[in-house]
Design brief:
binds adenosine-5'-diphosphate; Rossmann fold; 18% strand; six-stranded parallel sheet; alpha/beta; binds magnesium ion; 727 residues
């Protein structure tokens, strides 16, 4: 029977290896194995870099056995074998006890994989995995100078994978038949791409790194094109969905909102507003992402869209990531609408609507009441958290879903809310973390994008500085003095810490590790809200009205403290990242971030966005023990140096592992994306996007490209689609 891409691996490799590959690496079919690309390539001459090795590093080296010597140990029973291996550029010692070394003959070339240890000050491998490259079984790999090193697992080593792959491609002429190229020839020639068979050969058995690069370029094209076809397909399907037009109606809630706004809209807000107004008026649901700098005023844009929908007889739902934020939105909207938001109450306007809050922490009776108002349509504007998504929340006529701070929600949640409309409602997704273009084209690729670049005028701006504790310990005292000055001038401040603190003795997790760099190190534990608040109260901020805010408080407590802070009854709020997103207290001017190096770039930018939201200038101090010369110190300096969220988003992308952003994308072999890099492949992604759009715009769509259609279908039905959902 001929082998095809769909042939189960068990049939090619035998049941035992296939089972391990399936269980441990998720490889089931020939296709999976061929798309299991080397992580890197070992080559001769690499040992020159052994100097860079550190104890604990896991490495694979390609080297020749120089000497083997076995002796009895003096202190203990048994033997020790020392093997020196080298590659002409450097050498390293391998150590084996009691003849556990395999046939390591002098002069042979092999791959040695293990964890670097040290003994008496010099680095060595103890009991490394050894794989001798042996010409006898036709293994010419060492001669190629580039040996593929594969992502491996406990029972499937890199060399087992190498041999298995070789079995498939070693079929020689047959290999071209086995591999059916899904890419249309025009696209291939237009972009100068290798055939799939050639690319697979070169990625698995390259002669030079140039081979690898060309092959990878072609294989990335597959990934990008399939992804963009999927996304373009979604956009098209969405555009064809029947929806309900929600036209503007003069003299209604929207006009009332405009009249009540205490400021003029910025040009950007007006433009995006027009865009939304027109789209809401169409009989197909809007699917739009509104991205905008922190503080650019997205909320009012959303509120105006919601008002238009209410005027047209529908309901609008605003989904917020936290209870604090949901409560704040409701307060703001109610205040702006005045009597128009209190229809049915004594002082309410008869032609108004109701603004309802629906969160998990509502008391049962209040929840019932809120649900009833949502179900019978009295509530025109419904604001809530995840509770909105639950069963039992039914809308009379849901016309618009607004998702605030999208990075906290996945597509699934968006869809859950959308499903609550009788016909698909319009959807507006807002994100305050500006996202790089590549992310917009991938993770959010099924949405049209609007951008607010401009901040409302009259903002004081935020001056940011790093306070390097190691080098300038005195600066922290000055920071607290500055904070006191601001408070004396009537302003307010936030002090943010990475952790809540020990009350129970339990070691609490950081409240939100979102985007923060790794924590699995042996640094001291991060500073905690409760401890820092105590120290500040007793010391530098003595006499100020100081309170804490964190995730362990009840929702009522949180809301109470946010209100008190907003009302100016608290001078200094010591908090976790619960204040990170969306919190809007215009009188706050100082943000001190303790252990700033424990936060991600976008997070810091978000935190900084909490101050200088009114007319007063703001101050943001990033306190850190990291040395200013370290990469961490430089990351902080970069945050301090620019207030351009787009630039920082890019920096963030560089410092975070891309897998975090793409969700499961890079962690599993089931994802559609293995080689594509959001950072480096912007042009390729854009080109693939254009090709995908063009392909789908032709009358026959993918009908003439069964290979592509099959890959798109596979991505859609597979769990792979999952990664698209995890923003
Ligand atoms: P974000 O885009 O970060 O969600 P918000 O919508 O919370 O920002 O707006 C930030 C602050 O700016 C709010 O206090 C809001 O009332 C105010 N604001 C919004 N638009 C304008 C404007 N055009 N002029 C002045 N202030 C504005
Ligand atoms: Mg906001």
């Amino acid at each position: 029977m001929a082998v095809t891409m769909e042939t189960p691996l068990a049939r090619v490799l035998g049941p035992k290896t296939a089972a391990s590959m399936a269980d441990q690496l998720g490889l089931h079919m020939v296709r999976d194995l061929l798309r299991h690309y080397p992580r890197r390539y070992a080559r001769r001459g690499e040992m020159a870099r052994l100097d860079d090795l550190q104890k604990g590093d896991r490495v694979t080296i390609l080297a020749q056995v120089k000497s083997v010597s076995t002796r009895r140990m003096r202190q203990r029973h048994g033997t020790i074998t020392e093997v020196t291996v080298g590659d002409g550029a450097g050498s390293m010692k391998l150590v084996f006890f009691n003849n556990r070394h395999a046939k390591l003959a002098q002069g042979g070339w092999g791959l040695f994989a293990g964890t670097v240890g040290s003994y008496q000050g010099s680095l060595q491998f103890t009991h490394p995995d050894c794989h001798m490259l042996d010409n006898a079984d036709g293994d010419d790999d060492w001669a190629r100078a580039l040996v593929p090193i594969y992502p491996a697992s406990k029972d499937v080593s890199s060399w087992v994978i190498q041999k298995s792959v070789k079995l498939l491609i070693g079929a020689g002429g047959g290999f071209g038949d086995l591999v059916v190229d899904p890419l249309p020839d025009e696209i291939r020639s237009r972009h100068g791409l290798l055939s799939l068979a050639a690319a697979l050969l070169d990625i698995h058995r390259p002669t030079t790194m140039d081979d690898v690069e060309h092959a990878a370029h072609r294989l990335k094209w597959d990934e990008a094109l399939i992804l963009q076809l999927t996304l373009a397909g979604r956009r098209r399907a969405a555009a064809l969905e029947p929806g309900i037009a929600r036209p503007r109606r003069p003299g209604g809630l929207l006009d009332a909102v405009d009249a009540a706004l205490p400021f003029d809209l910025t040009e950007g807000q007006r433009e995006v507003g027009e865009e939304l107004a027109a789209e809401l008026d169409r009989e197909h649901p809007m699917h739009r992402l509104l991205q905008g700098e922190v503080g650019s005023g997205k909320t009012v844009v959303a509120l105006r869209a919601m008002a238009q929908v209410v005027d047209a007889g529908g309901q609008a739902a605003l989904l917020a990531p936290t209870e604090v934020l949901a409560a704040q939105h409701v307060r703001g909207i109610r205040q702006l609408l005045g009597p128009l938001g209190r229809a049915g109450e004594l002082d309410g306007a008869a032609d108004g609507t109701r603004v309802v809050l629906l969160t998990g922490s509502l008391k049962a009776a209040a929840k019932r009441e809120a649900r009833a108002e949502v179900a019978d349509g009295r509530a025109g504007i419904v604001v809530g958290t995840h509770a909105l998504l639950q069963e039992g929340v039914d809308f009379a006529d849901l016309g618009l879903v607004v998702v605030d701070e999208q990075h906290r929600f996945g597509v699934e949640q968006r869809d859950a809310l959308r499903a609550k409309g009788s016909r698909p409602p319009h959807v507006l997704v807002m994100t305050a973390t500006p996202i790089p273009r590549t992310v917009a084209m991938t993770v959010y690729g099924d949405l049209e994008v609007s951008t607010l670049r401009q901040l409302p005028s009259g903002r004081g701006g935020v001056a940011s500085s790093v306070v390097p504790m190691g080098e300038k310990p005195g600066w922290l005292d000055r920071a607290w003095l500055r904070l006191r000055e601001e408070v004396a001038a009537g302003r307010q401040a936030y002090v943010v810490c990475p952790r809540i603190g020990d009350v129970s003795g339990a070691d609490d997790e950081p409240e939100d590790a979102d985007g923060a760099p790794d924590r699995d190190d042996d640094r001291r534990p991060p500073l905690a809200v409760l401890d820092v608040a105590e120290l500040l109260r007793a010391g530098p901020l003595n006499g100020l009205r100081l309170d804490v805010l964190h995730g362990r408080l009840t929702p009522e407590e949180k809301d109470g403290r946010m209100r008190a802070f907003a009302a100016g009854e608290i001078d200094v709020l010591v908090a976790t990242t619960v204040v990170e997103v969306g919190v809007d207290v215009p009188n706050a001017t100082v943000m001190v971030v303790m252990d700033a190096d424990r936060f991600g770039v976008s997070q810091l930018h978000q935190l900084r966005g909490r101050v200088a939201r009114g007319k007063h200038a703001g101050l943001c101090l990033l306190v850190s023990e990291a040395s200013t010369a370290s990469s961490t110190g430089q990351r902080l300096a970069a945050v301090a140096a620019t207030s351009d969220g787009f630039e920082l988003a890019r920096l963030d992308l560089e410092t975070r592992r891309e897998g975090d952003i793409l969700g499961a994308a890079q962690s599993g072999t089931r994802s559609g994306v293995r080689l594509l890099s959001l950072l480096e492949d912007e042009e390729l992604i854009a080109a693939a996007r254009a090709e995908a759009t063009a392909l789908l715009e032709t009358e026959r769509g993918l009908a003439d490209h069964p290979g592509l259609a099959a890959e798109v279908a596979a991505l859609a039905t597979d769990e792979r689609a999952e990664w698209l959902e995890k923003a």
